[in-house]
Amino acid sequence: MNITLIAGSNRLGAASTSLLRYMETLLNDRQVTVALIDLRELPLPLFSPDMPELPPDVHRLLEAVTLADGLVIATPEYHGSISGVLKNALDYMNAGHVAGKPVLSVSSAGGPLGVSSLLQLQSIVRNLHGVNCPEWMSIGMGSGRFDAEGCPIDEGIRSRAESAVEQLLNLTRLLMASKATKAAFTA
């Protein structure tokens, strides 16, 4: 199983990226192949449908998404929405990259929770024909603290992250089995 994680912040030490990296360790512990795309480290030019040729970093992003069986997308919440960096990356994608794949949405916010960004992210996933995971996760101000090893200090956050990862893996297995069954019937 291949899961691609997309960190949608360009801030050094972003809580959303720290949470995503913690989820990466949970996936690695479960022997899942993980690709992490950190948009802070992979700057993309502003999307334009008139772009004659896609830059190599865009190809890297799209390849990681295409090869994934499931996705985890993390964003900080800015002004009640997802980050501009993440929106730009998502604009490069189309249904051919995301359709039928489970997607876990994750956010961090300066206030109590980042629910608005999660709702908007799930709307984008639906428009890309992805399958939103029934679980989502947001951490708010003060709860985004992590120890030196990258583990959330708050036990509740660790527990919620583990639950969200399990939900994603269960949904991914179900969808992969469904695709395999359909392929067997059409062969």
TrEMBL record:
It holds the Pfam family FMN_red. InterPro entries: FMN_Rdtase-like_dom, NAD(P)H-dep_reductase. The keyword Oxidoreductase applies. The keyword Membrane does not apply. Coiled coil: none annotated. Its EC number is 1.7.1.17. One of its GO terms (cellular component) is cytosol. Residues 1-141 form the NADPH-dependent FMN reductase-like domain. One of its GO terms (molecular function) is oxidoreductase activity. Keywords: Oxidoreductase. Belongs to the azoreductase type 2 family. This is FMN-dependent NADPH-azoreductase. It comes from Paenibacillus solanacearum. The lineage of its organism: Bacteria, Bacillati, Bacillota, Bacilli, Bacillales.
